[in-house]
Amino acid sequence: MTSPTHINEFWKTTPLDQMTTQQWESLCDGCGRCCLHKLRDEDTDEIHYTSVACRLLDVSTCRCTDYPQRHRKVQDCITLTPEMVAGLDWLPPDCGYRRLSEGKDLPDWHPLLTGTAESVITSGASAAGRCISERKAGDLEDYLVTWPSEPATASHHPVIRHVRAENS
Q1: Region 34-47: what's the mean pLDDT?
Q2: How confident is the model at residue 4 (pLDDT cuts 50, 70, 90)?
Q3: Secondary-structure breakdown of the chain: helix, strand, coil percentages, each rounded to the nearest 5
Q4: By the 8 A CB rule, do 31 and 62 touch?
Q5: Which residues contact 167 (CB under 8 A, 6 or more apart)?
Q6: What is the rounded CA–CA span in Å between residue 13 and residue 78?
Q7: Contact (CB, 8 A) for 49 and 148
């Protein structure tokens, strides 16, 4: 097994638009926050995050249950590309794609640095345990939250149950 201190830090030397598919895909930390529904205010253009996940997201692991076929099953599922990342204002602030496009490094809890996907959960970055499937949720407005737009902190460690917004 490769020690995290001896990994090939390709993201420091390879521009996003020159990465292989494998390199590009490995930048995804698997937090699941991009798979949460968002509402955009038509008047102010402000984004309101929800804790409601795409129906294909396994809410306990934050993995897509049908990644190869996701576009056929979820018409508005987005495939991130290097060209579009800089223009997406809804990506989490510590998203690897976003950070690299902004000239920053990966967060210290990123699996490419730690060697384990568990670091995403222990850092508080993961939506695992903090979201509900769209198949079980009601109105998105009942599930408004702010944590998907905030940098991960250990205080955001997942809770076991889902709590609806206070005004529901």
Answers
A1: 96
A2: low
A3: 30, 10, 55
A4: yes
A5: none
A6: 26
A7: yes
